[in-house]
Amino acid sequence: MTRQGSLRRVSLADNMKEAPVKPKDKMGARHVQALLLTGGFLCCYAMRVCMSVAVVAMSDKTKPMHFDWDESTQNLMLSSFFWGYVLTQIPGGMVAQRWGAQRLYGAAVGLCGLATLAIPIAARYGDYQLVCACRVFCGLCQGVVPPIIHTLLAKWVPLPERGRFTSFVYSGGWVGNVIALQSSGLLAGSVLGWSSCFYFWGSLSLGWAVLWQLAGRESPAEHTEMAFDERLYIESSLGVVETDAPVTTPWRDILTSVPVWALLVTQCSQSWGFWMLLSKIPSYMDKVLHYDIQNNGLISSLPYLCAWLMSFPVSIMSDWAIRKNRLSTRSSRMICNTFGEVFPALALVGLGFVGAGQQLLAVGILVLAVTGNIAIYCGHHANHMDLSPNYAGPLMGFTNAAANVCSILAPLVQGYVVKDPSNVAEWRSIFFLTAGIYVAGATTFLCFGSVQVQSWNDATIKRSCSGRRSTLSARRPVPPIPISEIYSTEQSKANVIGNVAVIEEKIER
């Protein structure tokens, strides 16, 4: 694994004389990298979710190979994943930013795949204790994934395309949920048995890890086969420079940044509400509305499927509005984030007043709530890269660690408030509390959030670059291509040369 101290990014796009020219090709290297990132995230979510289906079959006494696990033991195995998941968020971001994210991503998904393959053996020879150990290890591996993805997106995605790429990659988790829920149920009920759930997704994840190691790249500078105009478009949009100085994360500046704390608050509120929607609403519908949504595969997958489909028009419209100057980046982020949090809050309030005979209405409200939540990927979820392209990974690790603590606390608070699962009044209390948390997070981001690159994003680089010359990133040289072969007019050529000159002048200062 090569150290990444030699390559840093300086946010100089605003200082360019001309806007970056978008390549004409519809499918470029950045799109291939996004597809690979999405595939890895899909595998991660599938390995996380398949356990919730398989554990039911593993505890079914009518099956030839079953275990005497009560409900508390099953919940212990399901929750053990998050014990490890929370621990590696911040370290994962720091390692990805300092030593490189590409190889770490492949290793994380591959090792998680191996641990998933080992679960059937662990259950037979180590009972639930060894299964918990495997799940903790899976959590440790997957905890580094969100900061890794943010690190790579910050290097690969031009500013005008940030919303759609972020939504597309992270929506792989929604697709993974849908596919895993359906396929795991079919596999567990087939002659192959419940162990096939783990063998299938573990093997698929290992296959993806091999593909990623072969085709994944750390940055455009390391992709020797991509078109020169696409690389120039990405790097001139982001303002990439090269320096040999070591890189340190400015934690003091991060921890004293008001926009960072606004981002953390809104991400925590979203995580609380989202996991309340997905983990406890089925219980409410079962106990109060007498509708077992979990045993209806199509209905249980419908919220994820609708959210995934809605991610495309929402992200495309968000980026289009920014690119065409119909909305500023700040306005777009704030509108998307407010909608993505306030809409589910209103849905939760409405759900508390649905009658016992209105099951379909309740399902419709749940689908709308989860679907509306997808807008946050064009809101605060892309904001880490807005605030600090250089430290998007550590920043994501910091906020996501806190958010996942909230997702763990949400079901515990629900259990404390709702003593009687059939009591509508108690459920309304937790719904109103969650709606208030949603609105508080959206309001905090609206008042204190920012899309401006923070001064500490470039501080380390500016200090390290004093007295040395920095250029556009090119650690692994690409074959020289005459600029006249790429840009047909003298004016376009002058724009490119002028942009490079502005970057070099800015760094030398």
Automatic annotation (TrEMBL):
Any single GO CC term annotated in Swiss-Prot or TrEMBL for this entry: membrane
UniProt-annotated location(s): Membrane
Sorted UniProt keywords: Ion transport, Membrane, Sodium, Sodium transport, Symport, Transmembrane, Transmembrane helix, Transport
InterPro entries: MFS (IPR011701), MFS_dom (IPR020846), MFS_Na/Anion_cotransporter (IPR050382), MFS_trans_sf (IPR036259)
Keyword Ion transport: yes
Membrane topology, as annotated: Multi-pass membrane protein
Family: Belongs to the major facilitator superfamily. Sodium/anion cotransporter family.
PANTHER family given in the database record: FI21844P1-RELATED (PTHR11662:SF280), SOLUTE CARRIER FAMILY 17 (PTHR11662)
The name this protein goes by in its record: Putative inorganic phosphate cotransporter
